[in-house]
Design goal:
Layout: H1 3-6, E1 23-24, H2 35-46, H3 58-73, E2 82-85, H4 88-98, E3 106-110, H5 115-128, E4 131-135, H6 144-154, E5 159-165, H7 177-187, E6 190-194, H8 206-209, E7 213-217, E8 229-233, H9 283-297, H10 299-309, H11 313-319, E9 335-338, H12 345-354, E10 357-358, E11 360-362, E12 365-368, H13 376-391
Parallel strand pairs: 1-10, 3-4, 3-5, 5-6, 6-7
Antiparallel strand pairs: 2-8, 7-8, 9-12, 11-12
Helix pairs in contact: 2-9, 3-9, 4-5, 12-13
Length: 392
């Protein structure tokens, strides 16, 4: 990274079409498309006007660039280890299908994990009569450290799979995946990570964490389209079974003239796990354009920008009676403000809406999730809304 790349980010709102007066602090709900990504999608749609212009290489070129961009974002891994699918639940289903689990084993998850991660593991555990260990947070104001300790304690010699997010989707609590990954390797458990709520805005290095699976939906912090997900599959999946037997996932699929010379082998690495029709000529260019921007900005600089934006926010909201996690265990791009006693959620929603503030209520927290398009005016509007709600 040269000196220019290392420079602090400034507000990037001009890269987006966010309406004037909207204080969008809700990227954890859905990331807005950058202007260049929107334009790329329109050009992609226009390709279908003249199907004769869609040539065999178009089925592969954009997919390859998308793999390369995502692999660089998560630690410069082999792009062939990146699979393209429709979302996290698809990748969870692949993991469930390929990771063994028996009745004398257990699966470790977190409390109130996103449903896409919960349902498939719960069903598999039920099918084989295995133990499902759902580890909840302690009933304390600052719970990150103790929550992580309890997860580590739950992982034992009978653990087959640990399936966790990078940060909790409701309040941004950070999970120490380096330490958890080390514990998994000690007992021989697979580590399946959902990076949807942080990859793109918080640095993540596959070579450090060493997960067996890292899956991300593209429509949040990757600022991409709905229905495009990206997943890293580690070496233990090199000989696994995909959910679909697609033509494009087979060896030699680039040779259209000989597709009926059926090949038994798959494309290398994780490409076998790609969803059918993965070469979406409208959606994939959108994902590529957004990842080019994120690569230019870099997750470290994005995290630093969000941290600077919210530097004084936490002290002020605590004075209003809201509770926040310790700095060590919260992310700057996604964090929860837990309600003061007696605060009516309806009043809070109305106060924020009146000021054009978009944030989400998740569980017992107001989830706030800024990104590079936010500025001090957005944070001020949030604080004004919180003050009014508390004063009512």
């Amino acid at each position: 990274m040269d000196a220019g790349d290392a420079a602090a980010l400034t507000c990037q709102r001009d890269q987006f079409n966010i309406p004037d007066g909207l204080h969008y602090l809700n990227c954890a709900y859905m990331g807005p498309l950058p202007r260049v990504a929107e334009e790329a999608g329109i050009l992609g749609l226009r390709m279908k006007r003249d199907p004769s212009s869609i040539l065999p290489h178009h089925f592969f070129d954009t997919s390859l660039e998308l793999r390369e961009l995502f692999s660089g974002l998560i630690g410069e891994v082999d792009p062939a280890r990146i699979s393209i699918g429709p979302g996290v639940s698809y990748s969870v289903a692949i993991a469930v299908k390929n990771l063994p689990l028996s009745s004398d084993q257990n699966v470790v998850l977190t409390y109130e994990q996103f449903p896409s991660n919960m349902h498939a593991w719960a069903k598999k555990a039920q099918d084989v009569n295995a133990d499902l260990r759902v580890i909840g947070p302690p009933d304390t104001i600052h719970r990150g450290a103790s929550w992580n300790e309890e997860i580590l304690t739950a992982i034992d010699s009978a653990t087959a799979v640990v399936s966790l997010p990078t940060v909790h989707w409701t309040d941004g609590t950070i999970f120490d995946l380096v330490e958890i990954g080390r514990r998994c390797r000690d007992v021989g458990a697979a580590l399946v990570v959902d990076g949807t709520q942080s990859v793109g805005a918080l640095p993540f290095d596959v070579n450090v964490v060493r997960p067996d699976v890292l899956m991300c939906s593209g429509y949040k912090w990757l600022l991409g389209p709905y229905s495009v997900g990206l997943t890293y599959f580690g070496p233990s999946f090199d000989d696994g079974e995909p959910l679909e037997e697609t033509w494009i996932g087979r060896e030699g699929s680039e040779d259209f003239e000989h597709l009926v010379d059926y090949k038994a082998g798959y494309q290398p690495g994780a490409i076998r796990y790609d969803v059918a029709q993965r070469s979406n000529f409208a959606l994939l260019p959108v994902a590529v354009a957004s990842l080019r921007l994120i690569t230019k900005w870099s997750p470290g600089r994005i995290q630093a920008y969000c941290m600077g934006l919210t530097g004084n926010l936490f002290e002020e909201v605590e004075e209003l009676g809201f509770r926040v996690e310790d700095a060590r265990w919260r992310s700057a791009h996604l964090f929860g403000l837990r309600m003061p006693k007696g605060l009516e959620l309806v009043e809070l929603q109305q106060a924020l809406k009146a000021r054009g503030v978009s944030a989400s209520l998740r569980g017992s927290a107001l989830r706030v999730s800024p990104n590079v398009y936010n500025d001090a005016a957005d944070v001020s509007a949030l604080l004004e809304g919180l003050r009014q709600a508390v004063a009512v």
